[in-house]
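Quarterly update from the structural biology core.
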Amino acid sequence: MHSYFLDYIVSANLAETLLSALLKGLYASQTAACVDHLYVLIINVLVIVQDRNLRQTLSNIKVVAPWYTEHPSMSFSLSDLTILCILRCMMYALFKLKDQYLLSNCFAILLDLAPFLAGVDCYVSERVVRVVYQLARRCSSIQTNSSSLHDEDIGSVESSPLMSMSGDKKDSGVLDNAQETLDVLLKMCALALRPARRIANIHLLYAVIHEHDQLQDALAMYSANGSNSAKTPERAGKGHDESSATPRDILAMAETYLEKLKLEDSFVSAVEAVDKLRLLVAADINSTHVEETRGVNFTYAEESAADCFFVPCAWASLLRSSPELSFSSKHIQLFNTAEKKI
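Predicted structure, tokenized:
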């Protein structure tokens, strides 16, 4: 997307319309005609999210997504809706498509958005923490059994040349990709729960505290396999991590507040616990010096010959969706006949 077009989107308040349409396509990733469509959608979302002016406003724009069948009448912020749809697409790319390119762009979107998250909804918070927990259990299961995940039928999504590898190589890479995905999700939480944003994302902090015991499994798995920094292929995002928070800090912080809240008291409701937690966090932040962090900064960057990727991708999508188009190999001339005579 051209920078002038992005500026127009901001000035004309079209971010809601454009991003909602892209997210709807990613939400329905399992019914996509081909994986090339997902590439185009995910890249456009990344280009939008990497724009500083746009991503600063995403948490303030409320939308209703009737196509989000889990909660069709619920009002989301655009940042929350982005997280939910990227999580869904990311799990599909990880366990069904086994597509590292699609995964890496999902990583870049989440890490670009994380420093700007504010007011993360309780449902979204619970969803993020639940995915972290389930992903940690899945990683532990793969590692313990020394076997790969069952490669289920990927439905109507066709395979991509970018994923062309043997089945053994695909299966052997599932664990590495799952660990990297877990690493990225924990980093996203760390950025969203840094001191400067902790009160704004109080529901995410409460979700981590509420599932503290289960998340310790994630920390154990994370420590056992080492800390792998989120990696993205050259085409996906180029950036650097400036966050000082670590996944270990998340659970240590959760344990500290868990002791203060004394959640074992049955008479304390979730609403009361969140209100009490907000006061505790405010007191801690007021007593310490808080410095804002820039977090990570991923930008989409094509190599010198961008058309080497996009032209084949666009033609592949066009041909798959237009069966009436065909080319006869007899009429394709690879060499100029005049040059051949010389």
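Strands lie at 62-64, 75-77.
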